[in-house]
Amino acid sequence: MSHYLAPFLPFVQKPGRYLGREVNTIIKNRADVRFSFCLAFPDTYEVGMSHLGLHILYGLLNREEDVVAERCFAPWPDMEQIIRQNGLLLSSLESQTPLRAFDLVGFSLQYELSFTNVLNMLNLGGIPVRRSERRADDPIVCAGGPCAFNPAPMQDFIDFFVIGEGEEVILEIAKTFLLAKKRGKKRKEILELLAEIQGIYCPDFHPDGRRIKKRVVQDLNESFFPDAPPVPLVKAVHDRITIEIARGCTRGCRFCQAGMVWRPVRERNPDVIAKLAEDLVAATGQDEISLLALSAGDYFQIAPLITRLANRYAPRRIALALPSLRVETLAGELIEQIKRIRKTSFTIAPEAGTQRLRDMINKCNTDADLLTTVKRVFDAGWRAVKLYFMIGLPGETVEDLYGIADLVTQVLMQTRQGGQITVSVSTFVPKAHTPFQWEAQIGLEETREKQELLKSLLRHRRLEFRWHDARMSLLEGLLSRGDAEMGKLVERAFVKGCRFDGWADMLRYDLWQEAIGEFGLDVEEKMSKRHPSGTLPWDFIDGGLDKGFLLSEAWRAKRAELTPDCRTSGCYHCGACDHEVIRPMEAKELPQESWSARSLVEGEKKTVRCRLLFTKRGLMRFLSHLELSTVLQRALVRAHLPLQFTAGFRPHPKMSFAYATAVGMESKGEYVDIYLHLPDLKTDELPERVNKYLPAGIKILHAWKLPDSTPSLAESIESFTFSAILPPSEVAASEIREKVKDFLSQERWEIVFERKGQKETREVRHLVEDMSLHDEGRLILKIKFSPHGMVSPVELLVSVLGLSREQAKAVEISKEFTTFKTNLLTDGE
Questions:
Q1: Does the N terminus or the C terminus of the chain have fewer Cβ atoms within 10 A?
Q2: 49 with 236: CB under 8 angstroms?
């Protein structure tokens, strides 16, 4: 299948974002299904592919025979410009189907600063932005995620919202659609049927503010979890296996929306986690397993689970990570197990600098907890720790800011010589359905004053201070507690050109200011304290917590009173449980039988060097060298080859390339050397063994076992032969031949190129052995290779033939073959 964006991929950053075709991608014949769902994520591919919820829904929907689910991510501005200028439509990765051709387009609203991207994706996909303007043949647009707990700012653009957890309700939506289509129901009638499903808020059919109760999945052990998700081609933000070990949190931090709305705590059993880990390692080849929970250290079986997983995966160089640990749960045993393979970064969130303020926000840990944990971490060999704090919390005083500096100073004293501390500070944003939902948010000027004070206090050569953009925090605050009128501001900002507002280097705050001024919004009033007796825009959404409980927590905060964890101190009737269907669920004890580990010990078998010849063709030519290397590495892991690993802080399979073929350039023959603990390897079986785990376009053609004395690839290669298919032009072939002849007759030929913004001149004639034009418009270039450098075919097209750089980028270039200094490609046996 040709790709509708292929001609434009040479001209964008990270073309791998738009390829699809990943390992484990599910491709269905759309003619064989009756309901199509586009899972739209309003951020880049690498952000969206890190989101576990997307993978859950993708796998769950595609299990249904009559349903197809495909993915779409927000295009970067360079690709958006191409789509608009060429009259294209934003389409899905799997089948390049425009968004407007789906039955249902569903957005994941993970953060408020993605709202303008939602509108942009609708517009690019050919769907009217406002729901009131959609016709009978337009798709239905839905949204879910944390931001759906206050649907008001986006309700003019979304046909219905899913409130709560999606695993069960998504199938009810699909079945409702299938039945309605079978009965000939139209768009409005389908929406009316969907509005009757629990957990769905449909603005057109719930005008009276009928209370919408969130959906809860009670038993994670029985719910679907993807065991073979698509593996990103471009490095994802969280490029690892993610297994959700628990959902919900009962710590009760009063600022934390996730800790409130995802109650009660439900844990996945260790044996289920073990099976998922094994399946996911086999299906993805990724080298890190992240155990996800709002507070992973509170998982009932965390110590034995980590120990067993480490015993199983340490010999395979697969690291473990617990990205959300509280300091008081980080026992020495956990640290020792986590560090066995790779010292993944440690992030600790004290949140506040003084005990008084931590008590106000119900962060039940102490300075001593933090200092003890940091000492353990550095004593165990870590070199860096990240600390997260918030400013602008309710009840904060200047003493609390000085408290941050004092606490960080004590942490520095705990670190060994050379230990690095990163302090990151964000601004408190009051969130819906939390005890602090009525609190004020500090303004732009006050935020910057607090940041400047901390900058002056946090000065040390081993200390890095980072802060969240105050403008982004202000916009997040406006939108997170906004009403339906705030949607007009979002739309105006989108029309003005706002995109990727959550990216610091993309934020156009000047355009947001213009939109705010045009609407006459009083920002200070919008950010001010709300009265507890007043009506909030999200009051009709039942997030699972009684309003009385939230108010009591707000009062306890003012008195700096702690509310203990209900798992240890008994129920305090927050409203999340009915104690019949919805209730806390603790993991069962770990089975006693041990999980066997592969017994390979470094050095117990002789290392064999193997050279692979492989292709890089089709869409895979748009992968960068790093992306290509990762794809190969994961395929080798999935093929269960006993790879030799590098030493050091982050071990990885030992692989050696000679030359990084440029992005967009095809290759009929790339080479890589790998190192295996397998002296009896039958190399003729290796290509078939690995190829089934590679995406189409990358294929191992041959493998050789090399003698120990074989020079490296960089030392062995003499030259590369490239072909370039020149586009038809007004320049005659005879003129091209004259230019080639002139070049070949020269003793020197200098080209000018830019490196890091500086222009440099380089002599390249001695690097070109031959250049000739064939009748079919195919230019053949034989270019010498040197470990110290070579000349790119693109540079020669520009310099010798006079093509513009844009024209040269559009030329189809292929590496035809590689010439070696001597014939070393034998089995060496």
A1: C
A2: yes
